[in-house]
Amino acid sequence: MSGLALSARSGRRLGGSRKYDLYLRRALFAWLMVFVIGGIIMILGPFTGEHTSGYLLGYLGVSVGLGIVLFIISPKRKRTTARRLIIFLLGMLLLLLAITTDHGNMQLEGLFFGALISLTHFAVIHYAIAKIIGPLVFGRVWCGWACWYAALFDQMPFKRSHGRINGRWGWLRYVHFALSMGLVLVFWFGYGYRDGVDGLSGLYWFLTGFLLYLLLGFILAVILKDNRAFCKYACPITVLLKASS
């Protein structure tokens, strides 16, 4: 019996040692990624030409690095919390960049205005990379790791999703998509309005749409007790994502 007990204790020690080694390797890899990202930031920083861009790049490096560390070394049961932190840091950074870099309206209406102006417009390129071509390769990485709406909705108190509700709730996204497109077409062809994507007016469009999306998302989350209710049922961008992913 003593031999069996000794063997069991030895097995537990060996298992604990292996877990520690795995944890250590993950941590070392994670911090290696931090230094790699930090190195890239240091190399690119002097070429930005603007202090604001340098600060934002620094924030990007720190947030991505810490997020990678937390996600890799966290136990599986804690990775949801780590992912929420990562998407919050990245989502807020991308929102700040969208507001401060003079790229105008990054809402869906900006895509439609931009496409009517030129298929090489920044808004069109952004949507093509992040929400049309990107999902073909990486799936819905935007929704899970970078969307500024999801970054805020994930901080609400309804941590457990109850799945999707049966019925016609999913049609909300198509109605939303059609209303956004129709609004742009009416302004463009009916009133000759061309200022919905660029400059200060484009920024006003973006911020107005952002606040309206947030309000709708918070209302749906409270009614359905689901943080991601807006993402599941009302986000018009998912129309593009469903087609590409």
What's the quick description here?
This protein is mainly alpha-helical.
Overview of this protein structure:
With 245 residues, the protein is mainly alpha-helical. It folds into 2 domains: 9-102, no CATH class; 104-245, no CATH class. The chain contains 11 helices and no strands. Mean pLDDT is 76; it is low at 1-8.
Kindly give the count of domains: 2
Order of helices and strands: HHHHHHHHHHH
- Alpha-beta classification: mainly alpha
- Return residue spans where pLDDT drops below 50 for at least 5 consecutive residues: 1-8
Note the main sheet.
Answer: none
What amount of the residues lies in strands? under 5%
- Tell me the helix content: over 70%
Query: Count of helical segments?
Result: 11
User: If you average the pLDDT, what whole number results?
Assistant: 76
What attributes characterize this protein structure?
mainly alpha, 0% strand, 245 residues, 76% helix, 11 helices
Topology:
Blueprint (H helix, E strand, L loop, with lengths): L1 H43 L6 H23 L5 H22 L7 H10 L4 H17 L2 H5 L2 H6 L17 H21 L7 H26 L4 H5 L3 H8 L1
Helix pairs in contact: 1-2, 2-3, 4-5, 4-8, 5-11
